[in-house]
Amino acid sequence: MVLRSRDTRILAIGLPKAGTHLLTGTLRLMGLADSHTAIHPGAFRYSRIRHLPCFVSAERCASSRLLIGVDNPTYVAKQRVLKRLKRVRLGSFASSHLIYSVEMAQALENLSFKTVSIIRDPRDVAVSHYLYIMRRPRHSLHDLYMKMDSDAERLRFSFTGGQFRDNRIPDICERVRSVLRWSQSESNLTTTFEKLIGEEGGGSRILQIQEIEKLASHLNLALSSKRVEQISEQIFSRESQTFRKGKIGDWRNYFSEGHKAAFKVIAGDLLVELGYETGWNW
After folding, report:
1. pTM exceeds cut of 0.85
2. pLDDT given for residue 164 in this prediction
């Protein structure tokens, strides 16, 4: 039996290719309604938006705009963001790619949102990111990647970041940390791809069940043990349009020694901090 909290909205937060669809699929299985609302730069592509740095004063940005996106953070008019967030009915969820900011956290609190953020091994994020862009001719970075000389260079850009038109794509460490900061919010629970994916993705069924229970507790949902087991059996799905493999540790099939060395400089400490490695000897 599912007892749904009727006084809360839910926002799933992740950086691209870190498992946002895995998270929203889990929320759907838990009995929450999908609002079919997304909060990321692409959702505002017809808006008048300005990329970082903001072309007005910091004070005006804070009062009239909110920062949307992770790979390419973008200022969007606050009223437009709030209007989209208000589409999410109580007891429903929306998905997003959002860096943490005090302004956004306050806006979500004012609208009675609880948030769930998801992270993933940054190396797997980089591999999935590069392969996703190559499969998507309409992706804003597709032409840039096609002009690169090799797949090795494309993969490297997906974790080093760099210049793109008039903007700078943050490196993978910056991107992950920008989402990790959501843990500062009392209304947020941070989960991981590795805990949610389960045995079919190379994880653990026990950890998966424990994580489902944590999610239910955070969202004030009462799930029977039988229902938790059923959700666990259904989480791994190839039906998502963004699904590729859904496997833990697939980066090992793509990283050269050069990639490893470059990645350690950028995010070696982050991997240890997050528990994906115990040191730099990998």
Report:
1. yes
2. 85
